[in-house]
Amino acid sequence: MRVDVVSIFPDYLAPLGLSLVGKAAASGVLDVRVHHLRDFTHDKHRSVDDTPVGGGAGMVMRPEPWDEALRTVAPEGARLIVPTPAGRPFTQALAAELAAEPRLVFACGRYEGIDQRVVDSARERMPVDEVSIGDYVLAGGEVAVLVMVEAVARLLPGVLGNPDSLVEESHVDGLLEYPVYTKPAVWESREVPPVLLSGHHANIVRWRRDESLRRTARNRPDLLDRLPASSFDDRDLSI
Ligand code: ADE
């Protein structure tokens, strides 16, 4: 997969060279290129922003450098992602969808955002998603891109050492993951739940499902409400 990121703070994206995403890049599964928006300006001050039309606080990113940047780095066949708190939610399902794309382009806005005409114009050439990573406001799209690229990269074939890790984890079946433990069996007088040491596979599966349900009810009751009745079995806890 090829990923291009356009930003006025390319250094913010340096962590894409580390850890899992960095290894994916080193192994050739992922090709990440970061571009400086100011390289697409032509005025003396390399300006990327201007005051909002209609008034209001802050600055808006100018359309000209953005349009030139996107026409240069986003060829046909790419999908454009614009991180913004005004976007659709970023979910595991969207991460899986993006992981199937050959080419992603991320446009990192700063200040009050990018002139909307850039997005509207790009939409005539390629699929565009405005995407939010949560109901809070960041200073710009760069951190959201780090989040999204990491979530997508770990789904690419060959990136995780053990692909079984992708099966039983939070948000895959609509529930949160059960708690996990490692050795020693007793640590500071706290025991690992005995069922996990029993070797009884069916009981372990049942216990993990119950814990998933309990945790989801406690931390994310909205997720339980969204699941169809058919996803529960008659031995599930009534929570
Ligand atoms: N830019 C600023 N806030 C954001 C958010 N919550 N998600 C994505 N991009 C953003």
UniProtKB/TrEMBL annotation:
The gene is trmD. One of its GO terms (biological process) is methylation. Belongs to the RNA methyltransferase TrmD family. Specifically methylates guanosine-37 in various tRNAs. The keyword Repressor does not apply. Homodimer. It is an enzyme of class 2 (transferase). This is tRNA (guanine-N(1)-)-methyltransferase. It comes from the Bacteria. Its EC number is 2.1.1.228.
